[in-house]
Design brief:
- The chain has 209 residues and is of the alpha+beta class.
- Helix content is 39%, strand content 31%.
- It is built from two helices and eight strands, in the order αββββββββα.
- Helix 1 packs across helix 2.
- The radius of gyration is 31 Å and the shape is elongated.
- It starts with a helix and ends in a 10-residue tail after the last helix.
């Protein structure tokens, strides 16, 4: 019973202490607008930038990433989604900007994941000197599995939201097309009735005096 209690407690601890050094958010990018995010990053740190346009227009956006000295590290024009990994060469504030300035009427919904550095290890395992026990190894495996599950859930939610938006747009277009076809059919039917009625209408002869 004591071993089972410790395993259960350790599993709950893994879930509660799960943290990630990452900025993950979804934001709205209006038409003809530009949004920038700032992040202070130490030197020689591995950084990963991942983004995806969820809804809006042609599902594209301009992306620009600059280091503290103003040098462009990463730049893409009208991209739907991408991922870029780099190692910071300078300590300072890095700026990533998303631009929708080329669009004059389409709002965009953009997902961004800005991961800085390696993931924080579990408490007590980061400075482990001796060989990990079986319970600690299991906790580490559970931690990695939870991280993978969260990543998969995020990507599936994005795909589900994107697919739902496209389905709603398609449904709206089909609805308006059906309304237009219905109006056209009714108009043609009424016109044909009047034309046929004129064919069978007796015309009164003109009396010439």
């Amino acid at each position: 019973m004591d071993v089972r209690y410790r395993c259960t407690y350790l599993f709950i601890l893994v879930i509660l202490t799960y943290t990630s050094y990452a900025t993950e958010l979804t934001f709205e990018l209006p038409d003809s607008a530009k949004e920038c995010f700032h992040q202070e990053i130490p030197k020689n740190t591995t950084v990963t930038l991942e983004f995806q346009v969820v809804t809006g227009g042609q599902y594209d956006v301009d992306v620009n990433l600059q280091d503290p000295k103003g040098q462009i590290i990463y730049k893409q024009i009208k991209m739907q989604f991408d991922s870029h990994t780099f190692t910071s060469q300078h300590t300072g504030i890095y700026v990533v900007c998303f631009s929708n300035e080329f669009s004059t009427f389409s709002h965009k919904l953009v997902y961004m994941d800005f991961q800085v550095g390696d993931e924080q290890p579990l408490p007590g395992l980061g400075e482990h000197v001796t060989v990990m026990t079986q319970m600690e190894s299991s906790a580490q495996d559970i931690h990695k599995a939870l991280t993978t599950i969260l990543d998969y859930q995020t990507h599936h939610r994005l795909r589900e939201a994107q697919g739902r938006k496209r389905a709603e747009d398609l449904n709206e277009r089909v609805l308006w097309w059906s309304i237009m076809e219905t109006v056209a059919v009714i108009t043609i039917a009424v016109g044909q009735v009047f034309v046929l009625k004129n064919f069978f209408t007796e015309r009164k002869p003109f009396n010439v005096k």
